[in-house]
Amino acid sequence: MRGASVAHFVIMGCGRVGVSLAHTLDDSGHSVAIIDQDDRAFRRLRSSFGGRKVTGVGFDRETLKYAEIGDAYAFAAVSSGDNSNILATRVARETFHVPHVVARIYDPGRAEIYQRLGIPTVAAVRWSADQVLRRILPEQTINGDFRETSGRLILAELALADAWLGRSLRSIEAASGVRIAYVTRFGEGILPTAETSYQQGDTLHAMMRTTATDEITRILAAAPKEESR
């Protein structure tokens, strides 16, 4: 994938999840900078890792600048501390205007607070590295959570441009041809009604034709047309 849709990613935390993210993004040809307070943590990275290793505090502005946060497509805070992860994510978004951010958390009870701040969160579970990737990778493909037996249909998370905020789920379905199955809001799943609209922090889970995922991604990555209101 080198040379095609290359993006810069900054990762805070060189633990198991951070290393997994760094290796996956590096393998995909992206530019990666990984931050950790303890430079010994970088020993977890393989010798062929081509990204930048930055020793420092992940929410320190100078540290983030050294990691080239100003050029970042996405920032992932996956250290062992909830407060540090949230603080660093807020600095990345509010100070450096990184378009895609995600914070890994250990206390699910805080999810609603973080979601209200507009910060997507991922619980510290076994597959958290995969969940983080779904939120920060460029929307070139749709990663599915479930495929039905024939392989023709897939249940997957949708990635929408901010211009869709406030739009009804019905208009999103009409524009893209998907069927929204449920919404994750403030860490909880809800079944949509005719009045449900897309809100900041929502994750939409939809059924779609496998062959249509590229077209769906293209439609939802752009601003909605006026007639789809």
Feature tags:
single chain; 229 residues; alpha/beta; five-stranded antiparallel beta sheet
Please write out the topology:
Elements: E1 8-12, H1 16-27, E2 31-36, E3 52-55, H2 61-66, E4 74-77, H3 82-95, E5 100-105, H4 111-116, E6 121-123, H5 128-136, E7 144-147, E8 153-157, H6 169-176, E9 179-185, E10 188-190, E11 203-209, H7 213-221
Parallel strand pairs: 1-2, 1-4, 2-3, 4-5, 5-6
Antiparallel strand pairs: 7-8, 8-11, 9-10, 9-11
Short description:
This protein is an alpha/beta fold and 229 residues long. It contains 7 helices and 11 strands.
Describe the structure.
This protein is of the alpha/beta class and 229 residues long. It contains seven helices and eleven strands. It has helices at residues 16-27, 61-66, 82-95, 111-116, 128-136, 169-176, 213-221; strands at 8-12, 31-36, 52-55, 74-77, 100-105, 121-123, 144-147, 153-157, 179-185, 188-190, 203-209. The strands form two sheets. It has a six-stranded parallel sheet, with helices on both faces. Strand 9 and strand 10 (188-190) form a beta hairpin. The chain is globular and about 50 Å long. The mean pLDDT is 83.
- Note the main sheet: 6 strands, parallel
Element-by-element helix/strand order? EHEEHEHEHEHEEHEEEH
Please list the strands of the largest sheet in the order they lie side by side: 3-2-1-4-5-6
Provide the structure class: alpha/beta
Please report the distance between the alpha carbons of the first and last residues: 36 Å
Shape: globular
Topology, number of strands? 11
Arithmetic mean of pLDDT = 83
Strand content: 15-25%
The radius of gyration computed from the alpha-carbon positions, rounded to a whole number of angstroms, is: 18 Å
Give the low-pLDDT segments: none
Helix percent reads 25-40%
The number of distinct helices, counting runs of at least 4 residues, comes to 7
